[in-house]
Amino acid sequence: MVQTATQVLDWLGIVVFALTGALVASRKEMDVVGFAVLATVTGIGGGTVRDVLLDVPVFWVREPAYLITCVVVALVAFFTAHVPQSRYRYLLWLDAVGLALFAVAGTEKAMETGVGATVAMAMGVITATFGGIIRDLLGGEVPVILSREIYASAALAGAAAFVALGAIGVPREAAIAAGFVVGLLIRAAALRYG
Amino acid sequence: MVQTATQVLDWLGIVVFALTGALVASRKEMDVVGFAVLATVTGIGGGTVRDVLLDVPVFWVREPAYLITCVVVALVAFFTAHVPQSRYRYLLWLDAVGLALFAVAGTEKAMETGVGATVAMAMGVITATFGGIIRDLLGGEVPVILSREIYASAALAGAAAFVALGAIGVPREAAIAAGFVVGLLIRAAALRYG
Amino acid sequence: MVQTATQVLDWLGIVVFALTGALVASRKEMDVVGFAVLATVTGIGGGTVRDVLLDVPVFWVREPAYLITCVVVALVAFFTAHVPQSRYRYLLWLDAVGLALFAVAGTEKAMETGVGATVAMAMGVITATFGGIIRDLLGGEVPVILSREIYASAALAGAAAFVALGAIGVPREAAIAAGFVVGLLIRAAALRYG
Hints:
The structure is a homotrimer of 194-residue chains. By secondary structure, chain A is mainly alpha-helical. The first copy, chain A, has one domain (2-193). Chain A has helices spanning 2-27, 32-54, 65-80, 87-112, 117-138, 152-167, 172-193. The radius of gyration of chain A is 16 Å and the shape is globular. The model of chain A has no long low-confidence stretch (mean pLDDT 88). The A-B interface holds A 28-34, 37, 40, 48, 52, 57-58, 60-62, 64, 67-68, 137-140 and B 52-55, 115-116, 118-119, 122, 125, 129, 133, 137, 142-143, 145-146, 148, 150-153, 156.
């Protein structure tokens, strides 16, 4: 069940980040393969960097379902994304959800490898932010992490809430949910009032 | 002999990509070490990312001949590149040849580590495109993968042709050659008529 | 003692590079977490790339003190950096010191893993330059490695001096010191007269 909770976060994060990659591809008027490439690197980029740094097998290398999911998201976006005006707004909100999901899921996965809390939170922030960084570098956008709005801070707050609640004995599902909510609310407040 | 066929592709790919790196260095009027750095990261960058993701030893770390080859290519380019007008044209065509070579060689190397066809083709595309992506990011160019012309698609088509032909029993040398030709023709058509 | 000499170089390099990351964050008017992120990726980025390529455990993953140090440097910079005019000048000089430190420390660490001199020097150059490259890419600056001034060449000269002196029997502390001085003098000359 706990295992499932983390996996659900992970899959949701991959789907929403893949969608943000597809939206950037749409803004750049790329072809369908451009959509697939940008969706994939955004969806799996953060977790890939995390796994390489932790020196564990990269999560998608033995499991093609992750790649296929990103490509499917890209295809759906390619054939349905007809709302140019509002796309960037969607992008930032989806990115916020993915950020909060991956901050917790990335921290959790790092702790499972036995690293301490400081490094685990850093891995959560890396998982949450590097997919978007790669997306923006490849897509020729100003990296969202550079905007003056609160961004990496939200990921760090979510990761810290998850770690702190776990340390004081809160059940893992509750700590996961709380970490996600903290990260999302902070980022959402930054988007809404920032 | 098959071993040799893949190795030949690999070496040719490294040389032509190193040359594209040197041409970008030339456009930026870098010094000789800038030529060497850009030639090297372009020549070995894609294969390096592939090996790190597959968690196999990075191919050039125990074999200095790869680095030395890239540096030699850079030196030759530095002392002979006197044809400014036509350089960018050369760059795109060399990049096309390298793309087609690495799409097949990268897929082949990934399959040798036991991953499935989907992931292997993704590795072929990564090997074919990341050297150029790193070159363009470091060289301050708009990444060629972002151009509206067909690019990653050509690498994917070459990788897919190689995998499909191998799956139906075509001898490996023939499948390798066919994958290379498919990738190159598609990219060449995009350059010529795109 | 030798062990200590390399570690001292490493720690000094991390601190000065972290400071350059914080200065770029300051130029971009980032918030305090932006300072911490940019200081950290700059301070540990080069060594991280080196360790991933060498396939050894990434040095900071089991040792949170490195991360904490970078964050402390960022905090100090955030609350004291009030000298806008002169900041960029500081940045380039600090970067020069970090470059010379990491060129030697990175080469030394690579040689300890058993790679040959050519690859070890390449690792020294990578350790010395990639933190700054990542800093400049994330910070939206023109990568300093692209400037026409001598940059990677200085790192290479320092690494080569260290290797050459070691090969002819000079004691390691002296070779380390000489490599550092060679790298720093060449880069300093480029900054002063370039």
